[in-house]
């Protein structure tokens, strides 16, 4: 006894055409032999397709409802085998395409589209190295970039002036070619970009001699770009409209400039702060002094307090890096103070320091005067 087609699809006898289609897709996905390797899955798959073949068409469904299997086993659609049904590209193959387009190349290429409209030009990237001072205070920078510009001879059409383009004979202007492939489960249409016109649907009769039919030519262009204050390694600058020219009237891409900061021989950057080091004599550290130090703004006076210990960090406020986007706000300049301990003294210096050691009650016999100086500065 033949199985009931409604039961095979799991729908009621008054199910709509959409309900039947949804049920079929769900079961076809479940029992397709490429997905389900269990014994009997292929046979069940064929039964499901036969049920859908009958119930998806109003005329054959009406005959089946009235006469059962006998009403569809002969005549229109009656004696068709599974293979005959699968060759109906307007029915099963279209549904099969929508179901299995994601399974390992089983799709028919339905996502292929004709590419006759405007195409935006590519974005370009330039890696630019700037010096430390430029990163802090910004400024203008001249660069050169190779990019594609619209051909002025043909105005981007790719055709020799006075000529045009004609409809592609390979694809009849659709930009696509279709190829039927037979498989054990039927025939499937594969759609791909037309190789003759590259999906444009039109073929240039005579190519422009300047651009060889491309519509664009490669040029090297000089640009001036603005470096904002406070940029750092990895900062990306966008220069609108300076990428490659578009095709067929498409907009121009953008240029993205990625910055690298050259190291400075004296300064190191930590966020918005700048660090540097100076060395003072032990007498300057003991007595205190005022010294000149280098900053990104030029020479500045730095006060060394009396009794400054080695590796003390002193701060010059608002002498660091301006905040990107808010240059009024700046970091600080942090200066590490190193104290130089002499390794050799003349006799006068030695006498004076020994007198100081006696005043301080320091025993300089063991370890010598250098030991005393080390203790004074925490060494």
UniProtKB/TrEMBL annotation:
<comment type="subunit">
    <text>Homodimer.</text>
</comment>
<dbReference type="GO" id="GO:0051082">
    <property type="term" value="F:unfolded protein binding"/>
</dbReference>
<dbReference type="GO" id="GO:0042026">
    <property type="term" value="P:protein refolding"/>
</dbReference>
<comment type="similarity">
    <text>Belongs to the DnaJ family.</text>
</comment>
<dbReference type="InterPro" id="IPR001623">
    <property type="entry name" value="DnaJ_domain"/>
</dbReference>
<dbReference type="InterPro" id="IPR001305">
    <property type="entry name" value="HSP_DnaJ_Cys-rich_dom"/>
</dbReference>
<dbReference type="Pfam" id="PF00226">
    <property type="entry name" value="DnaJ"/>
</dbReference>
<dbReference type="InterPro" id="IPR008971">
    <property type="entry name" value="HSP40/DnaJ_pept-bd"/>
</dbReference>
<feature type="binding site">
    <location>
        <position position="208"/>
    </location>
    <ligand>
        <name>Zn(2+) 1</name>
    </ligand>
</feature>
<dbReference type="GO" id="GO:0008270">
    <property type="term" value="F:zinc ion binding"/>
</dbReference>
<dbReference type="GO" id="GO:0005737">
    <property type="term" value="C:cytoplasm"/>
</dbReference>
<dbReference type="GO" id="GO:0005524">
    <property type="term" value="F:ATP binding"/>
</dbReference>
<keyword id="KW-0235">DNA replication</keyword>
<feature type="binding site">
    <location>
        <position position="171"/>
    </location>
    <ligand>
        <name>Zn(2+) 2</name>
    </ligand>
</feature>
<protein>
    <recommendedName>
        <fullName>Chaperone protein DnaJ</fullName>
    </recommendedName>
</protein>
<feature type="repeat" description="CXXCXGXG motif">
    <location>
        <begin position="168"/>
        <end position="175"/>
    </location>
</feature>
<dbReference type="InterPro" id="IPR002939">
    <property type="entry name" value="DnaJ_C"/>
</dbReference>
<feature type="zinc finger region" description="CR-type">
    <location>
        <begin position="138"/>
        <end position="220"/>
    </location>
</feature>
<feature type="repeat" description="CXXCXGXG motif">
    <location>
        <begin position="151"/>
        <end position="158"/>
    </location>
</feature>
<keyword id="KW-0346">Stress response</keyword>
<feature type="domain" description="J">
    <location>
        <begin position="4"/>
        <end position="68"/>
    </location>
</feature>
<feature type="binding site">
    <location>
        <position position="211"/>
    </location>
    <ligand>
        <name>Zn(2+) 1</name>
    </ligand>
</feature>
<feature type="domain" description="CR-type">
    <location>
        <begin position="138"/>
        <end position="220"/>
    </location>
</feature>
<keyword id="KW-0479">Metal-binding</keyword>
<feature type="repeat" description="CXXCXGXG motif">
    <location>
        <begin position="194"/>
        <end position="201"/>
    </location>
</feature>
<dbReference type="InterPro" id="IPR036410">
    <property type="entry name" value="HSP_DnaJ_Cys-rich_dom_sf"/>
</dbReference>
<dbReference type="InterPro" id="IPR012724">
    <property type="entry name" value="DnaJ"/>
</dbReference>
<dbReference type="GO" id="GO:0009408">
    <property type="term" value="P:response to heat"/>
</dbReference>
<dbReference type="InterPro" id="IPR036869">
    <property type="entry name" value="J_dom_sf"/>
</dbReference>
<feature type="binding site">
    <location>
        <position position="168"/>
    </location>
    <ligand>
        <name>Zn(2+) 2</name>
    </ligand>
</feature>
<keyword id="KW-0863">Zinc-finger</keyword>
<keyword id="KW-0862">Zinc</keyword>
<feature type="repeat" description="CXXCXGXG motif">
    <location>
        <begin position="208"/>
        <end position="215"/>
    </location>
</feature>
<dbReference type="GO" id="GO:0006260">
    <property type="term" value="P:DNA replication"/>
</dbReference>
<keyword id="KW-0143">Chaperone</keyword>
<feature type="binding site">
    <location>
        <position position="151"/>
    </location>
    <ligand>
        <name>Zn(2+) 1</name>
    </ligand>
</feature>
<keyword id="KW-0677">Repeat</keyword>
<keyword id="KW-0963">Cytoplasm</keyword>
<dbReference type="GO" id="GO:0031072">
    <property type="term" value="F:heat shock protein binding"/>
</dbReference>
<comment type="function">
    <text>Participates actively in the response to hyperosmotic and heat shock by preventing the aggregation of stress-denatured proteins and by disaggregating proteins, also in an autonomous, DnaK-independent fashion. Unfolded proteins bind initially to DnaJ; upon interaction with the DnaJ-bound protein, DnaK hydrolyzes its bound ATP, resulting in the formation of a stable complex. GrpE releases ADP from DnaK; ATP binding to DnaK triggers the release of the substrate protein, thus completing the reaction cycle.</text>
</comment>
<dbReference type="Pfam" id="PF01556">
    <property type="entry name" value="DnaJ_C"/>
</dbReference>
<feature type="binding site">
    <location>
        <position position="194"/>
    </location>
    <ligand>
        <name>Zn(2+) 2</name>
    </ligand>
</feature>
